[in-house]
């Protein structure tokens, strides 16, 4: 796969030109760079402190305090526990002439939760510092409002969806953030994800003396598991399905009365995500019917994450900022869509135009969620990524505040792709 990617990179000759816009762009971009450089030490402190003190989802109190202290030190009022999530953050800046009817509001987001056992193996310490830097870099860059949002609980959870339901995106026109990686990409595919727990209920019996008196819940779980394996042949390439049988009984001499199957359903598109979910429901019902058992199906013990809808208008502007920083930033499509994970930023990107570009901090081919990537997230290359990302995020934000044509085109692209889609609306239609 890496050889294929290298061939694609060799064949690509990406260029991200900046169309004529507001006349003082060079001066504005220069100001953003100076603002970021002025807080370099603070950004490095965030990156290093969070890496040394990893915290899992909804437990990021130390990270919250570190980030809040930096923002407060720059003169901002920080709301902790924002939008109904205890470890979330919010700070904002607006120009003196801000008018919500005519001036845009841009949200910049930071993640800061870590993975169990391997810490910041997804580089959220880099994301946290970059988001803070992008916010501070863009302050004073134009007419409008900039909202910094600290968004916890991305790993295995959907912290942003809870914050959305708490009003996080009210009045927001577009949203930006970055993710560290082993390539520089303006955009990449991210799947939507739903989780499910199915508990089959049967009848216990002695497996030797009276097996015919039982109803085998493990048989039902096994049939469902096998049916999902067979389904994969008919699944489109956009879909992913992975499951475990987390409980299958206590002793081999007892017909299992209960068995539990846990799974993830993923897809690159909201329509196919919901369609695959319906097929899984049918499989579970069928497995119960075949074995004479019952089944209790619990979808989404935390809210689903939706596929990322990359706004290519804003992404191209990001590409221009990174070219100006000397990075070999690549267009979307260089990595195959089959190399796709999930993120709750998808829920944001389905409600407002958004970008989630990838920033190289590790050697090519270094996989996310590995100790090697965790090690990379504290290197000089990671710090370079923080500064380049902070400058790039700040410059994209500045362009949105100063160039109404850019935001208008981003909105037109967003509407052409289907407009706003919420998790709750999808579930109502299901």
Automatic annotation (TrEMBL):
Residues 193-285 form the Peptidase M20 dimerisation domain. Coiled coil: none annotated. It comes from the Bacteria. Belongs to the peptidase M20A family. PANTHER family: PEPTIDASE M20, PEPTIDASE M20 DIMERISATION DOMAIN-CONTAINING PROTEIN. This is Peptidase M20 domain-containing protein 2. It comes from Corynebacterium coyleae. The lineage of its organism: Bacteria, Bacillati, Actinomycetota, Actinomycetes, Mycobacteriales.
């Amino acid at each position: 796969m890496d050889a294929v990617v290298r061939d694609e990179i060799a064949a690509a000759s990406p260029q991200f030109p900046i169309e004529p816009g507001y006349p003082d762009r060079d001066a504005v971009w220069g100001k953003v760079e100076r603002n970021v450089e002025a807080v370099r030490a603070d950004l490095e402190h965030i990156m290093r402190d969070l890496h040394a003190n990893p915290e899992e989802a909804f437990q990021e109190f130390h990270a919250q305090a570190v980030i809040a202290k930096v923002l407060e030190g720059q003169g901002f009022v920080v709301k902790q526990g924002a939008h109904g999530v205890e470890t979330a953050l919010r700070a904002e800046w607006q120009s003196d002439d801000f008018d919500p009817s005519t001036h845009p509001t841009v949200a910049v987001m930071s993640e800061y939760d870590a993975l169990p056992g391997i810490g910041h193996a997804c580089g959220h310490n880099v994301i946290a510092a970059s988001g803070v830097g992008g916010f501070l870099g863009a302050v004073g860059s134009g007419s409008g409002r900039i909202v910094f949002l600290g968004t916890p609980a991305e790993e295995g959870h959907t912290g942003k969806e809870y914050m959305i339901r708490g009003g996080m995106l009210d009045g927001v026109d577009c949203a930006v953030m970055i993710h560290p990686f082993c390539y520089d990409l303006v955009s990449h595919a991210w799947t939507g994800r739903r989780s499910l727990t199915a508990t089959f209920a049967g009848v216990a019996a002695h497996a030797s003396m009276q097996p015919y008196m039982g109803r085998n819940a493990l048989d039902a779980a096994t049939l469902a598991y096998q049916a999902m394996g067979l389904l994969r042949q008919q699944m489109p390439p956009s879909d992913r399905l992975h499951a475990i049988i987390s409980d299958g009984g206590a002793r081999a001499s007892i017909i299992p009365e209960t068995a539990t199957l846990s799974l993830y359903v993923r897809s690159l598109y909201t329509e196919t995500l919901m369609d695959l979910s319906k097929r899984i429901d049918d499989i579970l019902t069928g497995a119960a019917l075949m074995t004479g058992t019952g089944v209790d199906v619990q979808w989404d013990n935390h809210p689903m994450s939706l596929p990322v809808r990359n706004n290519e208008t804003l992404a191209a502007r990001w590409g221009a900022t990174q070219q100006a920083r000397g990075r070999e930033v690549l267009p979307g499509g260089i990595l195959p869509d089959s190399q796709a994970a999930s993120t709750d930023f998808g829920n944001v990107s389905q409600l407002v135009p958004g970008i989630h570009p990838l920033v190289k901090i590790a050697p090519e081919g270094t996989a996310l969620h590995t100790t090697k990537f965790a090690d990379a997230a504290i290197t000089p290359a990671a710090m370079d990524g923080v500064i380049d990302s902070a400058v790039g995020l700040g410059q994209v934000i500045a362009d949105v505040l100063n160039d109404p044509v850019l935001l208008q085109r981003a909105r037109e692209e967003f509407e052409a792709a289907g407009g706003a889609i919420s998790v709750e609306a999808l579930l109502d239609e299901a």
